[in-house]
Amino acid sequence: MRLLAFTLLAVTLGTAQESTWSERDVARAKTHSPLPPPRPNATNRYADDPRAALLGQRLFFDARFSANGAIACASCHVADLGYSDGKSRSTGLGRTERNSPSLWNVAQQRWFFWDGRVDSLWAQAVGPLENPSEMGFDRVALTRALASEPQLAREYEALFGKLPSTETWPEHARPGSADDPLGAAWLAMNDEDRRAATRVAANFGKAIEAYERLLVRGDSPFDRFLAGDAAALSIEAQRGWTLFAGRGNCRSCHSGPNFSDGEFHNLGVPPLGGGKPEDPARYAGVERVLADPLNACGEFSDAREGVAALALKTLERAPENFGEYRTPSLRNVALSAPYMHQGQFRTLAEVVRFYSTLEGATQVGHHQEQVLQPLQLSEGEQRDLVAFLESLTGAPPASALLAPLPDQR
Ligand code: HEC
Ligand code: HEC
């Protein structure tokens, strides 16, 4: 009894404490730390070029690449909001159907978007640029916008070579159906011009990827604790890890240094508007990435036979992919509420309560196995798990990286 009282006193005084971890807890934790640098991406030969990253930073914060001149990538990926936007579903020119993912450590992933419908960060960037609900721009107007701005044109051409002449091009055009004026204008362009405009869009993405690869945030209290700083993790967070790794079974999907297996699962998180889930998610994502002219196998890729191309060659869509979303990273997760593919949960406590009770979960379709069982955690265990998730927030990089370039402000 005296011993217990003494330990409690030590805890309250915040003096050195014994770790609550077993050897197995430590061994498991080490598979998640430290965070390595992002893997090289051979499909983008500019991926680690510092000049491309500078141009990418400029493009990321520039609202001129939008149909109304007011929306940039940075509108929905705000550095101070965990590189997300704090909303359930993002709004640009219109409302999107999904939550804006955090861009911290985004280069750790292999498939992008909640449904993994693109296979590189450079190809990803062309999506929002041309999406009518996001920036609503188009690759033809992009080419002109780059050419008309001397600084941008100079930086672009120094990296990627001469911008194509747009004299004979329509005002606006992007791939789409013939009923859409921009789609019709695109179909009326000749093949060579279409390829030239697409190359500019791909290069726009390649510069942005080089920037995004620098958005790294490792070195969290969790990492520091494992590196030997015994004071870095509270007792609550330490107990939270034991739950995460043990009874919670969270690591079966949130695995490795990025706390994501990079794969897709259906947790039955109910859609925001209620009703039955109708979003095919990964089921459609597989089809789209295979058909994407900007994928790793396509003519704009710098490694058409590399590992990413190989991954596509073995990718097949399966019925159980219906309703599956990519496992998000949990690093820095405390910074990017709300959570899940439509921002269904406002706080980490709500997420943990969902895993605890599975209340409201939609029946997973007959093709799927039940991936989760309600964990039935006590209130205290739920708090511990949240404390652990909060311990995954890393130190940010230099602030100059997280803002428009000085001459852009
Ligand atoms: C209108 C808000 C909005 C704008 C503008 C926007 N995004 Fe996004 N972004 C989103 C949403 C929402 C998603 C998730 C969409 C989905 O999964 O279907 C997303 C997904 C992403 C992803 C995938 C992240 C991952 O973990 O897979 C990246 C990378 C990204 N955006 C970068 C950009 C870049 C670069 C730009 C500018 C060219 C941009 N975004 C513009 C809202 C936006
Ligand atoms: C079967 C795989 C799987 C297991 C097990 C799992 N997760 Fe997840 N987790 C996911 C997927 C997939 C999503 C996204 C689901 C969606 O949006 O519909 C997610 C989302 C989350 C999010 C929200 C992140 C964000 O940025 O929106 C948190 C937090 C989270 N999980 C924590 C946990 C914890 C804690 C556990 C253990 C109690 C756990 N997960 C177990 C796959 C899993």
Task: Please compute the radius of gyration using only Cα atoms.
Answer: 23 Å
- What is the assigned CATH homologous superfamily of the largest domain? Cytochrome c-like domain
Ranges where pLDDT stays below 50 over 5 or more residues in a row are 1-15
Strand elements, count: 2
What's the CATH topology name of the largest domain?
Answer: Cytochrome Bc1 Complex, Chain D, domain 2
The average pLDDT score comes to: 94
- Helix/strand-derived category reads mainly alpha
Order of helices and strands: HHHHHHHHHHHEHHEHH
What summary fits the major beta sheet?
2 strands, antiparallel
Number of domains: 2
User: How many helical stretches?
Assistant: 15
| Mass-distribution shape | globular
User: What top-tier CATH class of the largest domain fits best?
Assistant: Mainly Alpha
Could you characterize the architecture of this molecule?
The structure is a single chain. The protein has 409 residues and is an all-alpha fold. The chain folds into two domains: 18-37 and 221-281 and 322-390, Cytochrome c-like domain (Cytochrome Bc1 Complex, Chain D, domain 2, Orthogonal Bundle), CATH 1.10.760; 50-215, Cytochrome Bc1 Complex, Chain D, domain 2 (Orthogonal Bundle), CATH 1.10.760.10. 37% of the residues lie in helices and 1% in strands. The protein contains 15 helices and two strands. A two-stranded antiparallel sheet has the order 1-2. Helix 5 packs across helix 9 and helix 6 (139-147) packs across helix 9 (191-212). It binds heme C (2 copies).
